[in-house]
């Protein structure tokens, strides 16, 4: 049975989607959710799904608590699903090609510190992009710079608002992220 640590800072809709995907396919996995925010809605989703979850704050992260906890959990894969902190370099070094992230744009465009959620979609509109999408990539010690695993695209029309783009991107995330995770676990 595979151990998957899901990291999220907010709503946790991708985390829930991933868990439901694996459960619907009867693929047995141990999931564990870690968030850096005490009020993150992902904690409510974890309760509803009966998945263990915990808060490890940014300060605790800096003190090595996250590293210790990850080592205790012995994950086969660490999945950043809306986790907004830079992932610690020491964990990246210990788990090469075992930490992945999803980004709501076609990297290398619109990546880096501060480029998440609506900020990305607003930038896509401001730059009059004709397409956007998602990038699933390995995590490195820098924001959004790890090797690309998978990308999916969606068209952007001139009337699209950032919210329209967010909805298109979410559809791609929900469709592809669990499948890529399943493939990585099987490889």
TrEMBL record:
Entry EC no(s): 2.1.2.2
Q: Does the keyword Transferase apply?
A: yes
Question: The Formyl transferase N-terminal domain covers which part of the protein?
Answer: 2-181
The record's listing under PROSITE patterns reads: GART
Reaction(s) catalysed by this chain, per the record, are: N(1)-(5-phospho-beta-D-ribosyl)glycinamide + (6R)-10-formyltetrahydrofolate = N(2)-formyl-N(1)-(5-phospho-beta-D-ribosyl)glycinamide + (6S)-5,6,7,8-tetrahydrofolate + H(+)
Against Pfam families, the record matches this protein to: Formyl_trans_N
Q: Where does (6R)-10-formyltetrahydrofolate bind?
A: 59, 101
Kindly list the residues the record flags as site (Raises pKa of active site His): 144
Q: In which pathway does it act?
A: Purine metabolism; IMP biosynthesis via de novo pathway; N(2)-formyl-N(1)-(5-phospho-D-ribosyl)glycinamide from N(1)-(5-phospho-D-ribosyl)glycinamide (10-formyl THF route): step 1/1
UniProt record similarity statement? Belongs to the GART family.
**Function as written in the Swiss-Prot or TrEMBL entry:** Catalyzes the transfer of a formyl group from 10-formyltetrahydrofolate to 5-phospho-ribosyl-glycinamide (GAR), producing 5-phospho-ribosyl-N-formylglycinamide (FGAR) and tetrahydrofolate.
Which HAMAP family does the UniProt entry name for this protein? PurN (MF_01930)
Q: What is this protein called?
A: Phosphoribosylglycinamide formyltransferase
Q: Which organism is the protein's source?
A: Paenimyroides aestuarii
The encoding gene is purN
């Amino acid at each position: 049975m595979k151990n998957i640590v899901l990291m999220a800072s907010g709503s946790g809709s991708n985390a829930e989607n991933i868990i439901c995907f694996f459960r619907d396919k009867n693929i047995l996995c141990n999931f564990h959710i870690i968030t850096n925010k005490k009020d993150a809605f992902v904690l409510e989703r974890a309760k509803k799904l009966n998945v263990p979850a915990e808060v490890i704050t940014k300060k605790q992260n800096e003190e090595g608590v996250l590293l210790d906890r990850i080592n205790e959990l012995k994950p086969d894969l660490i999945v950043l699903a809306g986790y907004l902190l830079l992932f610690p370099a020491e964990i990246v070094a210990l788990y090469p090609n075992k930490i992945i992230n999803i980004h709501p744009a076609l990297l290398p465009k619109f990546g880096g510190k501060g480029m998440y959620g609506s900020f990305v979609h607003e930038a896509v509109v401001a730059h009059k992009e004709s397409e956007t999408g998602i990038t699933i990539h390995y995590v490195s010690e820098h924001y959004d710079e790890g090797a690309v695993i998978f990308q999916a695209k969606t068209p952007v029309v001139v009337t699209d608002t950032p919210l329209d783009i967010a909805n298109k991107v979410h559809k791609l995330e929900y469709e592809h992220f669990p499948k890529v995770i399943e493939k990585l676990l099987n490889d």
